[in-house]
Amino acid sequence: MSEQSPEEPFIRASALPMLNKCPCFESGPPGPPAIRGTIQHKRLEAALKTTIFNDVGLWAKEKVAVKWAYDWVIANTSPRRKSEMKLAPIGEDISMMRNMIFDVIDEGDDVVHVIDYKGGLPHGYEPQMAAYAVVGMRHFKKDKAKSTLIYGKTQTEDSCEYTMEEAQAVIQPIIQRVCAEDKKPSVCDFCDWCKKYPCSAHERSIKGDPRIIAKIFGNKK
Ligand code: SF4
């Protein structure tokens, strides 16, 4: 298990989709959707650990979503599945990544299956799932991983299979950009979720018009 000092740069697997768009992205405080997502995750985790589905605190549509996800996991994984399993990043090439918490991970016979629940809609999550695949394969010493996103809201799934090489090809370019000393922010569709918003990239993107800058930055400038 790798030790990580607080001074080292670190990357969360869940931030990889955002870092793929902008290498300077930094997660801001959780908004209402993220808070609702956490409650759904807790209910799913508890149900998988106890086989008792407790929907306390869930809104009506969330109850349906989480129950669907629970049934999906039971139907598509083996009894060896683990939920909310924390695994350290194994290997120097991903030593800058934080420990990963898998919603569900199932060792399987030949292919390790990693599953992530999403309360919202598809949003370019492939890099996150590729990182889970790398760690899942290394932890269970498998050559292949299947990564599945399950979307409770739409009751849909999205699976992808990786070899180690294929998963690394997804995450390593992102890690390299994030660790580059000369990285620059890039306006993207995740800016609203970023702690740094608005940043210097917005100033550049609006070509320095002082009226627009004042409107966006207000007293932050
Ligand atoms: S606000 Fe800036 S740093 Fe954050 S994601 Fe957008 S461009 Fe990148």
Strand content: 15-25%
Structure annotation, total helices:
7
Instruction: State the strand order across the main sheet.
Output: 1-2-3-4-5
The tally of domains stands at: 2
Q: How many strand elements?
A: 5
Secondary-structure class: alpha+beta
Task: Characterize the structure shown.
- The N terminus is likely disordered.
- This protein has 221 residues and is of the alpha+beta class.
- A five-stranded mixed β-sheet has the order 1-2-3-4-5, sandwiched between helices.
- The chain has two domains: 168 residues, no CATH class; 34 residues, no CATH class.
- It is globular, with a radius of gyration of 19 Å.
- It binds iron/sulfur cluster.
- The site of iron/sulfur cluster has 14 residues, from loops.
List keywords for this structure.
alpha+beta; 221 residues; disordered N terminus; binds iron/sulfur cluster; 7 helices; 5-stranded mixed beta sheet; 2 domains
Short description, anyone?
By secondary structure, this protein is α+β, with helices and mostly antiparallel strands.
Write the layout of secondary structure elements.
Blueprint: H1 16-21, H2 32-50, H3 60-76, E1 82-87, E2 100-106, E3 111-118, H4 126-140, E4 144-151, E5 156-163, H5 164-179, H6 200-205, H7 210-217
Parallel strand pairs: 3-4
Antiparallel strand pairs: 1-2, 2-3, 4-5
